[in-house]
Automatic annotation (TrEMBL):
Primary site of residence: membrane
Catalytic reactions on record: ATP + H2O = ADP + phosphate + H(+)
Protein name, UniProt field: Cell division ATP-binding protein FtsE
Species for this entry: Trichococcus patagoniensis
Function: Part of the ABC transporter FtsEX involved in cellular division. Has ATPase activity. Essential for cell division and viability.
Amino acid sequence: MIEMLNVSKKYNNGITAVNNLSVKIEQGEFVYIVGPSGAGKSTFVKMMYREVKPSSGTVQVGKYNLTTMKEKEIPLLRRFVGVVFQDFKLLPKLTVYENIAYAMEVVEKSPKVIQKRVLEVLDLVGLKHKVRMFPNELSGGEQQRIAIARAIANMPGVLIADEPTGNLDPDTSMEIMRILEEINNQGTTILMATHNSQIVNDIKHRVLAIENGRIVRDQQEGEYGYEI
Ligand code: ADP
Ligand code: ADP
């Protein structure tokens, strides 16, 4: 599903954020990305949806070769890779319905398909009753559930979550995890960068530990493994 081979990313300021990294992730896996701040976790996941272009090496995500991909093909990749952020990034002037529908309109889904799917993903995250609300009328946890619903609306093969529980309390974080688990059980590959040691240690999955832009540990059913 995902294969990186000898991938490096050197930013314009001279910092090498990812250093000759290779990894293979199979379809349907749930993978935590852990490591200290500045280790290169964000850069690593951003390369999977071409938010960051690698300086060298090859990145394959599904059928997409991100190294040879042309700019105009990026929208196709973005349908295949859904993304969820720590700060939700919902559009404040749009309702819950419109936020999700918008993600489907840009890929030219018909209004009928959109309507059905928006309600389906809202049901999956348990927020069908909030469909007419605006983001600022929702709690942080609810906003993140909407962001997840939006990210999966186009049925991506891969879901990337960069610190999805970073702004949430422990109970709310667990709710988010239950939803991500369900999405994963339906076959979506999930990569989650996180500092949440309790989640990593309680809900066991493969752990990739990154330090100084390299994978220093790759462990099935792994542990968080850092003092905080
Ligand atoms: P995290 O992913 O750890 O939550 P960020 O991705 O916001 O945090 O930033 C991680 C580090 O990258 C920080 O030290 C930040 O200062 C640095 N950083 C982010 N964007 C830039 C940039 N455009 N130029 C230089 N450093 C940056
Ligand atoms: P993490 O997510 O593990 O905190 P990042 O990938 O955000 O790590 O950052 C890795 C390194 O790359 C840090 O030294 C950071 O300052 C640097 N960095 C991140 N984003 C940028 C950027 N846009 N421009 C320059 N340097 C960056």
